[in-house]
Amino acid sequence: MAQERLIVEIEKGKEASEGRPSMGPVYRSIFASDALPPPVEGLDSCWDIFRIAVEKYPTNGMLGIRENVDGNPGKYKWQTYKEAYDLVLKLGTSIRSCGYGEGVKCGIYGANCPEWIISMQACNAHGLYCVPLYDTLGAGAVEFIICHSEVSIAFVEEKKIPEGDNQSFDLPVKKKSDICTIMYTSGTTGDPKGVMISNESIITLLSGIKNVLENCNEKLHEKDVYISYLPLAHIFDRIVEEAMIWHGASIGFWRGDVRLLLEDIAELKPTIFVAVPRVLDRVYTGLNQKISSGGFVKHTMFSFAYSYKLQNLRKGKNHGEAAPLFDKIVFNKVKQALGGHVRIILSGAAPLSKHVEGFLRVVTCSHILQGYGLTETCAGTFVSLPNHNDMLGTVGPPVPYVDVCLESVPEMGYDALASTPRGEICVRGKPVFSGYYKREDLTKEVMIDGWFHTGDIGEWQPNGAMQIIDRKKNIFKLSQGEYVAVENLENIYGQVPIIESIWVYGNSFESFLVAVVNPRKQALEQWAHENDIKSDDFDSLCEDSRTNRYIIDELTKIGRGKKLKGFELIKAIHLDPAPFDMERDLITPTYKKKRPQLLKYYQSTIDNMYKTINKSSA
Questions:
Q1: Residue 587 φ/ψ, nearest 5 degrees
Q2: Is 474 exposed, middle or buried (0-12, 13-18, 19+ CB in 10 A)?
Q3: 451: enclosing H helix or E strand
Q4: Cα 212 vs. chain centroid, distance in angstroms?
Q5: φ, ψ at 358 (rounded to 5°)
Q6: Residue pLDDT, tens place only, 373-406
Q7: pLDDT tens figures, 445-461
Q8: Beta 179-185 vs 151-155: how paired, if at all?
Q9: Could you give phi then psi for residue 107, rounded to 5 degrees?
């Protein structure tokens, strides 16, 4: 494997031992061969990140929202770092005056706004555990998180605690090992899991990001501007905003309406834009629609400019030198749609389609970086590098200060010691979480001999980048970043009386679910008879569009009755009159579904369902 510039081998691979699969070599970013970043004086906690930024950049605009001018949105109005700091100190005093201090869990429930950051920093100042509250994990998730994490005080949209003006409290000494936040994420059993993240995890990950960008001549600085619209309740946006604060940059907040996001971007003019693939898919679709409707001359000009720049990128030229003239006269309109100043677009939370990534690399005049991480790894384990066109479709090499290896998964045919290494991605290092809150059993399941087992299957590329190719567990993300626990859904949908068996499918490149259904022959024929639907045989009845519509309606009915979320509802189905069987290698002798084999067998059917739905909704 080529290791120049990107990764370095620090441990040899190990053959399978009793009870454990074989493990491939351990790799680390060549940008930082040491396991830990060099220390920064006084930087031991997330509070220190903010405190140091206030000392360095007191008059820089830190937090901005759009002013309301006669009912219309105006310019961004900014709080400086010093003004935000003073508010944090006042709020911290109020929290302490209510009797809450170090180690207490503090919930934050609300949309992204300056108050969210102020509340978080007040927690950081006084050593409270910040517990973001959000309801996208399903009905009752907020109540569960509050009860499970033992939240004592929470911030919501309105101020509910006294000022405490006449009191003062010393800030406690905070250690790197202290827990900074407990972030809840999806669990296969249905209950969210509280991921405990320490100060050191966040600081180390931020140091790794800083190291990468500096080595690629794209370091963050105080003039950078970031638009905050991805949920702060998730680790992805939280980490990016911490990075902005460390460098004295400005964070502007959107108005909370996706239809107005581009307007907010145009006004804010961000330099750093972070997105989930679903957002970038919309950008891609919108741009292609404009190009198609632009007339013959414009379309021809665009196609020529696109091909010319793409060819130069493939030759190894960096994006600023590949086609500077076409950047000005053809692609500038795309650049202006994102405010005109974006230099880095970072995609995460789910895989970005290769064709979308390649297209945006050409037309946005920005670096398109794709990253990979989990809440348990502080959001960042891999990130692709600027001006490396050979990393298209990958998540890049490991970030500095983490170790990565692959573990073989024999039951799925993945060998970490093969010439093309494939296996479960395992991570160790300071950015890895401290455990699941009050769930030591679940922690032991994923933390084995110091390695966090992600459940994702990766393939090392010859250039040292990682490509995500599969999922070991039966839980996956849709393109908008939402987790789907597929076995749980199949148990729910299997309760529809007319269904014999159902296989639910989704992937990280699509925003909705489809399914293959085995109907109950007798029940379906009875329904057809009662509704005067004539058919020659059972096969033709399964092919009837009325049957298809009826079963989708029944699935939707039970899904809504069980309070499933919108993205968990089935949008399209294929009715197979032949039950899943061992003869086609679709199930095990104990009748468990073989998901990779099911996908292989029904691949063309799946593709057609997605194609039909996407075409009708375009």
A1: -140, 160
A2: middle
A3: strand 451-460
A4: 20
A5: -65, -40
A6: 999 999 989 999 998 888 998 999 999 999 999 9
A7: 999 999 999 998 899 99
A8: unpaired
A9: -85, 150
Parallel, antiparallel, or unpaired: how do β-strands 475-477 and 466-471 relate?
A: unpaired
Contact 353, 278 (CB under 8 A): no
CB proximity list for 347: less than 8 A, separation 6 or greater: 274, 275, 276, 277, 280, 357, 368, 369, 370, 371
Separation of alpha carbons 404 and 401, rounded Å: 10
Task: Measure the CA angle with vertex 319, ends 317 and 325; round to 5°.
Answer: 100
- 373/30 Cα distance (integer angstroms): 19
Residue 324: partners with Cβ closer than 8 Å, 6 or more residues away: none
- How far is the C-alpha of 74 from the C-alpha of 268, rounded, in Å? 11
CA dihedral defined by 392, 394, 396, 401, rounded to 10 degrees?
A: 170
SS3 270: coil
Beta strands in 237-329 (DSSP E): 250-253, 272-275
CA distance 371 to 382: 5
Q: Could you tell me which CATH number the domain at 477-617 has?
A: 3.30.300.30
CA distance 258 to 240: 20
**Overall residue count recorded for the chain in this entry:** 618
Alpha helix positions (H), 127-190? 141-149
Single-letter residue type at 523: A
User: What's the pLDDT score for residue 138?
Assistant: 56
Tokens 């189905």 belong to 573
Any idea which architecture 46-270 has in CATH? 3-Layer(aba) Sandwich (3.40)
Residue ranges covered by each domain of the chain: 46-270, 477-617
* pTM of the complete model: 0.81
Residue 448 vs residues 136, 404, 426: alpha-carbon distances, Å: 30, 14, 10
